[in-house]
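User: Once you have settled down, look closely at the record that follows, taking as long as you need, and be ready to discuss the fold:
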Amino acid sequence: MNLKLCVVVTLSVLVCSEVSALMCNEGIINNVLKLATCPTNVLQKLHAMSPVTIATLDDSGTHRIFKCATATFYAPVGNKSNATFTAYYRDESKAPYHNFYYQEEIGCGHLHQNHHNEHFNAYFLLIDKIACFYRCPIYPTEGIGSAGAIVPMNNQNDLLVTAQLLTCKVALAAAGFLDALIDVDRCPASTAPRVSVLGLGL
Protein backbone atom coordinates (compact mmCIF):
# COMPACT_ATOMS: atom_id res chain seq x y z
CA MET A 1 0.00 0.00 0.00
CA ASN A 2 1.53 3.30 -1.12
CA LEU A 3 0.16 6.17 0.95
CA LYS A 4 2.54 8.70 -0.62
CA LEU A 5 2.71 10.57 2.68
CA CYS A 6 5.63 11.20 5.00
CA VAL A 7 4.66 11.37 8.66
CA VAL A 8 8.15 11.01 10.15
CA VAL A 9 9.12 14.46 11.32
CA THR A 10 12.50 15.53 12.68
CA LEU A 11 13.86 18.95 13.56
CA SER A 12 16.11 18.78 10.52
CA VAL A 13 13.10 18.38 8.23
CA LEU A 14 10.27 20.33 9.80
CA VAL A 15 9.62 22.43 12.86
CA CYS A 16 5.92 22.22 13.68
CA SER A 17 4.17 25.35 14.91
CA GLU A 18 2.25 24.92 18.15
CA VAL A 19 -0.85 26.86 17.16
CA SER A 20 -4.58 26.46 17.53
CA ALA A 21 -6.19 24.28 14.89
CA LEU A 22 -9.26 26.47 14.56
CA MET A 23 -7.57 29.31 12.68
CA CYS A 24 -6.39 29.79 9.10
CA ASN A 25 -2.73 29.54 10.00
CA GLU A 26 0.16 29.92 7.58
CA GLY A 27 2.37 27.76 9.79
CA ILE A 28 0.01 24.79 9.49
CA ILE A 29 -0.42 25.38 5.74
CA ASN A 30 3.34 25.45 5.16
CA ASN A 31 3.79 22.29 7.23
CA VAL A 32 0.98 20.52 5.35
CA LEU A 33 2.63 21.36 2.03
CA LYS A 34 5.95 19.99 3.32
CA LEU A 35 4.38 16.77 4.64
CA ALA A 36 2.35 15.96 1.54
CA THR A 37 4.10 14.82 -1.63
CA CYS A 38 2.27 17.24 -3.93
CA PRO A 39 -0.98 15.32 -4.61
CA THR A 40 -2.29 15.82 -8.15
CA ASN A 41 -5.65 15.26 -9.88
CA VAL A 42 -7.38 15.86 -6.54
CA LEU A 43 -10.75 16.79 -8.08
CA GLN A 44 -10.82 13.61 -10.16
CA LYS A 45 -9.87 11.48 -7.14
CA LEU A 46 -12.59 13.09 -5.02
CA HIS A 47 -15.07 12.39 -7.81
CA ALA A 48 -13.97 8.74 -7.91
CA MET A 49 -14.48 8.45 -4.13
CA SER A 50 -17.97 9.96 -4.19
CA PRO A 51 -20.31 9.88 -2.45
CA VAL A 52 -18.36 10.35 0.78
CA THR A 53 -19.14 10.83 4.46
CA ILE A 54 -17.18 12.69 7.12
CA ALA A 55 -15.40 10.20 9.39
CA THR A 56 -12.96 12.34 11.40
CA LEU A 57 -13.30 15.99 12.39
CA ASP A 58 -11.83 18.49 14.82
CA ASP A 59 -13.72 18.72 18.10
CA SER A 60 -15.42 22.06 17.35
CA GLY A 61 -18.84 20.90 18.52
CA THR A 62 -20.58 20.55 15.16
CA HIS A 63 -20.87 16.78 15.69
CA ARG A 64 -23.15 17.50 18.65
CA ILE A 65 -25.57 19.32 16.33
CA PHE A 66 -25.30 17.18 13.22
CA LYS A 67 -25.73 13.41 13.20
CA CYS A 68 -23.65 12.90 10.05
CA ALA A 69 -22.73 14.57 6.77
CA THR A 70 -22.22 13.53 3.15
CA ALA A 71 -20.72 15.12 0.05
CA THR A 72 -20.70 14.36 -3.66
CA PHE A 73 -17.95 15.68 -5.92
CA TYR A 74 -18.91 15.87 -9.58
CA ALA A 75 -16.65 15.15 -12.55
CA PRO A 76 -14.19 18.02 -13.09
CA VAL A 77 -14.00 20.07 -16.26
CA GLY A 78 -10.38 21.10 -16.53
CA ASN A 79 -9.30 22.18 -13.06
CA LYS A 80 -12.82 23.07 -11.84
CA SER A 81 -15.78 21.10 -10.50
CA ASN A 82 -18.97 21.36 -8.47
CA ALA A 83 -19.91 19.60 -5.26
CA THR A 84 -22.92 19.18 -3.00
CA PHE A 85 -22.89 18.82 0.78
CA THR A 86 -25.65 17.56 3.07
CA ALA A 87 -25.63 17.49 6.87
CA TYR A 88 -28.29 15.67 8.89
CA TYR A 89 -29.37 17.16 12.22
CA ARG A 90 -29.57 15.06 15.35
CA ASP A 91 -32.91 16.77 15.87
CA GLU A 92 -34.77 14.85 13.17
CA SER A 93 -37.59 17.40 13.16
CA LYS A 94 -35.22 19.68 11.24
CA ALA A 95 -34.75 19.27 7.50
CA PRO A 96 -31.21 18.37 6.38
CA TYR A 97 -28.86 21.25 5.64
CA HIS A 98 -27.86 21.39 1.95
CA ASN A 99 -25.08 23.39 0.30
CA PHE A 100 -23.70 23.66 -3.22
CA TYR A 101 -20.21 24.89 -3.93
CA TYR A 102 -17.61 25.37 -6.63
CA GLN A 103 -14.02 24.18 -6.53
CA GLU A 104 -10.84 25.01 -8.39
CA GLU A 105 -7.69 22.90 -8.16
CA ILE A 106 -4.65 25.13 -7.66
CA GLY A 107 -2.04 22.37 -7.42
CA CYS A 108 -0.15 20.17 -4.93
CA GLY A 109 -3.32 19.16 -3.08
CA HIS A 110 -4.58 22.77 -2.79
CA LEU A 111 -8.20 23.59 -3.71
CA HIS A 112 -10.04 26.90 -3.68
CA GLN A 113 -13.69 26.46 -2.65
CA ASN A 114 -16.50 29.00 -3.04
CA HIS A 115 -20.10 28.91 -1.86
CA HIS A 116 -22.53 31.77 -1.20
CA ASN A 117 -19.67 34.25 -1.78
CA GLU A 118 -17.65 32.64 0.99
CA HIS A 119 -14.16 31.49 0.05
CA PHE A 120 -12.01 28.74 1.55
CA ASN A 121 -8.67 27.08 0.97
CA ALA A 122 -8.57 23.29 1.31
CA TYR A 123 -5.31 21.34 1.52
CA PHE A 124 -5.18 17.56 1.14
CA LEU A 125 -2.36 15.69 2.86
CA LEU A 126 -3.49 12.27 1.74
CA ILE A 127 -5.97 11.15 -0.89
CA ASP A 128 -6.14 7.41 -1.42
CA LYS A 129 -8.67 5.23 0.42
CA ILE A 130 -9.63 8.40 2.32
CA ALA A 131 -9.13 12.13 1.82
CA CYS A 132 -7.34 13.84 4.73
CA PHE A 133 -7.70 17.64 4.74
CA TYR A 134 -7.05 20.98 6.39
CA ARG A 135 -9.54 23.74 5.41
CA CYS A 136 -9.66 27.41 6.36
CA PRO A 137 -11.44 30.63 5.31
CA ILE A 138 -9.89 33.21 2.99
CA TYR A 139 -10.17 36.86 4.10
CA PRO A 140 -12.63 38.58 4.25
CA THR A 141 -14.68 35.41 4.74
CA GLU A 142 -15.20 34.86 8.45
CA GLY A 143 -15.22 31.49 10.12
CA ILE A 144 -12.97 28.88 11.58
CA GLY A 145 -10.58 26.40 10.07
CA SER A 146 -11.30 22.70 10.23
CA ALA A 147 -9.48 19.44 9.67
CA GLY A 148 -10.40 15.81 9.33
CA ALA A 149 -11.08 13.09 6.81
CA ILE A 150 -13.80 11.95 4.45
CA VAL A 151 -14.28 8.33 3.37
CA PRO A 152 -16.23 6.64 0.55
CA MET A 153 -19.69 5.71 1.77
CA ASN A 154 -19.71 2.35 0.01
CA ASN A 155 -16.59 0.95 1.72
CA GLN A 156 -16.31 3.09 4.84
CA ASN A 157 -15.66 0.06 7.07
CA ASP A 158 -12.75 -1.29 5.00
CA LEU A 159 -9.65 -2.09 7.09
CA LEU A 160 -7.44 0.04 4.83
CA VAL A 161 -9.79 2.97 5.39
CA THR A 162 -9.46 2.54 9.16
CA ALA A 163 -5.67 2.40 8.92
CA GLN A 164 -5.48 5.55 6.81
CA LEU A 165 -7.73 7.46 9.24
CA LEU A 166 -5.10 6.86 11.91
CA THR A 167 -2.39 8.00 9.48
CA CYS A 168 -4.39 11.17 8.85
CA LYS A 169 -4.56 12.03 12.56
CA VAL A 170 -0.81 11.51 12.94
CA ALA A 171 -0.06 13.63 9.86
CA LEU A 172 -2.29 16.53 10.95
CA ALA A 173 -0.67 16.52 14.40
CA ALA A 174 2.75 16.53 12.73
CA ALA A 175 1.67 19.58 10.73
CA GLY A 176 0.94 21.44 13.97
CA PHE A 177 -2.81 20.86 14.19
CA LEU A 178 -3.04 20.50 17.96
CA ASP A 179 -6.79 20.51 18.59
CA ALA A 180 -8.41 17.14 19.22
CA LEU A 181 -9.47 15.09 16.21
CA ILE A 182 -12.38 12.77 16.89
CA ASP A 183 -14.17 10.01 15.04
CA VAL A 184 -17.71 11.18 14.24
CA ASP A 185 -20.84 9.29 13.26
CA ARG A 186 -20.85 8.39 9.58
CA CYS A 187 -23.85 8.37 7.28
CA PRO A 188 -24.75 4.85 6.15
CA ALA A 189 -24.49 3.97 2.48
CA SER A 190 -28.30 3.93 2.28
CA THR A 191 -28.30 7.74 2.57
CA ALA A 192 -26.05 8.18 -0.49
CA PRO A 193 -27.69 10.70 -2.85
CA ARG A 194 -28.82 9.72 -6.31
CA VAL A 195 -27.37 11.77 -9.15
CA SER A 196 -29.55 13.34 -11.82
CA VAL A 197 -28.53 14.07 -15.38
CA LEU A 198 -27.91 17.66 -14.25
CA GLY A 199 -25.28 16.51 -11.77
CA LEU A 200 -27.24 17.48 -8.68
CA GLY A 201 -27.89 15.22 -5.71
CA LEU A 202 -31.59 14.35 -5.36
The CA atoms of residues 19 and 80 lie 32 Å apart.
